[in-house]
């Protein structure tokens, strides 16, 4: 009997050691998932697509039914907006052709705002809410790589955390911390310049992103839109992130920070776009250096 | 043939966990509650109580296997679910030797085991730095709602699978005798 007890204790201790080892293994900054993990993710992703398709469809229909009541009002507002857009559209076309001419004069073909969109559908969401992650149905075979930005029509929702062959995991904006900062720009009202800053993380209490400005600007007003600047070397420029809700200083009163409400709805996601930046990213450059 | 049913049910439950968040109504979030469904774990409790014999550990084996699968596809830290599910299922298996398993005992075991497993997950995640709640908030915002939700899921699973599990168990283990 005592032999069994000792064996039991031994097994539990062995389990603990295994636990610490596995956590240590997975918490390090890995470039790629192991092939076992990729295989399991793909296999379950495939099943999730089949099993959850009717469920996702039904929940979408229910959401749509809820929206119908607002349709008439929305339609009125949109019609009013549309007349204004005609003029803007004309201006945009003019500017775009002018921009192309000027770019060709300079022999400059690629810009930091350019990206290739990869359409993807959300197939599952992590039931553990401490991990703000979703699974999408596109992977390495479709060109999705780690650290690419993920957007919806309304704005940025997160970045690719890891990619398997046929599925990928996306870390949502509300799971961001200091280790995955976004370089952003906010337009200043008067001189047309930009205020630069970083998205440092997410404030769980009021569900807003924390933006830290690199310099102090008095004239930043609430309601301004925050765009990615592309200068972090990971995301393209010009992705909408959110609107400024409150401008204040940090707890020591030294730097100016702002609370940013994300433009995209992070709760109700069905179709997303993975953004493949055309200009070389930090990762591309690192990989090339390794190859040489 | 019966042997294939059990892993398939577990796989389906793992897959369904990916859609659970869609069914949680908005007021839950507005109140700041965090719900987690442990349907896979609840099935494993049933498994240990009604399928396993005193000297077989299939429930424990599947707890470790599917804990690892959940770790891989729904979190990015390996081993946490595997260890928590494994250890708790082992304790539940130990309890079945002492207690006679009827509905109320099973429900009581499920409630305590869910609380225990969720608390263990929280402790490990807090230690790593994933969960940033303090203990008091955790109890009100997550532990209590989670245990209530999971007891309902357990009653549902009990009604659906208890008889079948006993039947499969009889089919399987009496042949050996």
TrEMBL record, chain A:
Residue ranges annotated for the Rod shape-determining protein MreC beta-barrel core domain, each copy included: 122-275
Ranges in a coiled coil: 68-112
Keywords, alphabetical: Cell shape, Coiled coil
Top-level lineage group: Bacteria
GO cellular component: plasma membrane
Family: Belongs to the MreC family.
NCBIfam families: mreC
Role noted for this protein: Involved in formation and maintenance of cell shape.
Protein name: Cell shape-determining protein MreC
Organism: Pelagirhabdus alkalitolerans
Automatic annotation (TrEMBL), chain B:
Subcellular location: Cell membrane
GO biological process: regulation of cell shape
InterPro entries: Cell_shape_determining_MreD
Annotated TM spans: 6-26, 33-51, 57-83, 103-128, 140-161
Main location: membrane
Keywords: Cell membrane, Cell shape, Membrane, Transmembrane, Transmembrane helix
Gene Ontology, cellular component aspect: plasma membrane
Membrane-related topology note: Multi-pass membrane protein
Family classification: Belongs to the MreD family.
Name assigned to this protein: Rod shape-determining protein MreD
Annotated source species: Pelagirhabdus alkalitolerans
